[in-house]
Give the backbone structure.
Amino acid sequence: MSLTEVGSSLAGFIEIHPGLKLLTDRNCVIRADNDPADGKVKLISGGGSGHEPAHIGYVGKGMLTGAVCGDIFSSPSVTAIVDCIKAVTTRGSCALLIVKNYTGDRLNFGIALEKVRAIAGLQDIRLLLVGDDCSIDECHIRKSVGRRGLAGVILVHKLLGAMAEMGCNIEDILAFGEGLVQCCNLATIGFTFELRDSQLENIEIGKGIHGEPGVYTMKACRDFNGIIDFILPKLLANVKQGSEILLLINNLGGTSEFLMGTFMNSLMSKMNSCYTVKRIHAGTFLSSLDQAGISVTILNLGYSSMLQELLDFQANVPVALFGKQVGDMLAKSSAIQCSLEEAFVPTNLNAMCAINESFGVKLTSTIIAYICGALVSCTVMLNTIDKEAGDGDTGSTIGKGATAILEHLNENKLDLLHPALLLQQISDILQQDMGGSSGALYSLFFQGASTVFTNMGEGQPSVSIRQWSQAISKGNDTIAKYALTEIGDRTMFDPLKAGERSLTEAINQNLPVLDCVESFTKACEETARATKLMQAKAGRASYAASMGSTSSVSYQHPDPGAHAVSIWARALFEACKQVIVT
């Protein structure tokens, strides 16, 4: 058994913390006393493991209903998130997903939300992104990346958990949460260091909780004063001077209590000159394994008159929160099996449109075969392109997804008659078998596209190219919603949006179907080539200190994800030409 096996750690956790249930094959911890039909809003959070006691330590009355755990510093799978939602809700339930703003978490929780809405009939599921990192100046933050989620998320769990336990409705909870996570109300900055010969060395300020490099570095120093002098203006730039605040001092996991005390002594003399500190809480709330470091979170108590009541609301969770000992939880913890086999509950097929059984099935099958074959054949080329500015694995990742779809096609496992189900199947395949950000993005794209066909009932006219254009538009909207990407960020989104626009224009001009598809293809190809001259504005690299640079850049190759779109767009046209012309 590996020391980093998440399931083993969770099994040990619930043995000593009664009142919890473990979904053993999904690495989810949920409240044993949860009643899915009690009418209360269910709060679900999670992320990569290695941040304990977050998030499993906050599952219980007055806080989270469930927490989903991925591998160390890795987002949990869509399957696990979907099953956690299904385990704590029932038809008619309301649930809120509280997600730290990291790309993997944002995408996977987003896919899960879309899938639960589509396949389980749970429409009132919402998502709240928490980005409280204030280490990067506002003017340098890319919209496609946003602020990182740090220890402030624990305060969000506490406050919204109290509201849910009190019986507040989801609209009020979400609205309160959206205001709460604004930078003027919640801000966090952290730093890491090494202690050598009574001196702080290798100081990194604004370092991420997954080991990402710090935004700033400092020379060695003999005390914390220089660090505090640097981080305090960052906090003041977000929560205005003179505010009444709650102060949360968070140990990143490897800082001794001796140094925590030393830091707090230095911090408070400076903090009290800038703010009216009404509450102070210190401890390990959200760690980064055994990293020696500290983060400072401030909550603006002037945000709402409800804050006092919500902060004082007694939470009954495994980890003592804010210095209060919790009461006894339920007498027994348990591990239960959870399977996704019965999770997909297809909508009545009669409520879905179907394509022409002979010509349409042949066209659909040919398109899938051509697209997947082209992507597999370009694996090495896409990997080579990706080595210029990435990890060199884009081709392998996309080829893996294409191969999985081909296998399902060859085994007659794809529903070629019903576009809604076909697109949902492809979305499932990609999120399970493709992996990486590309897998999540394409999964979101196909899940979003499927919704256009879901409620087109039997007896509707046969599926037209206009509906497919609408599906592409909906897929793009879904990517933008969760990836926060924009045109010009140098991603796959650029050619997809260009293709969408060109296809819509061609349709509005009443051009023949094949001409419309060709218009889509050419737009995708031209825009993909143009990414050679674009500056990358997405991904972890944009957290670097130089992220504000606007200097022109030029690459030898286009963005690999964008180029992959041009490859399958060309294959799409060739497949249509093969079937429609013959």
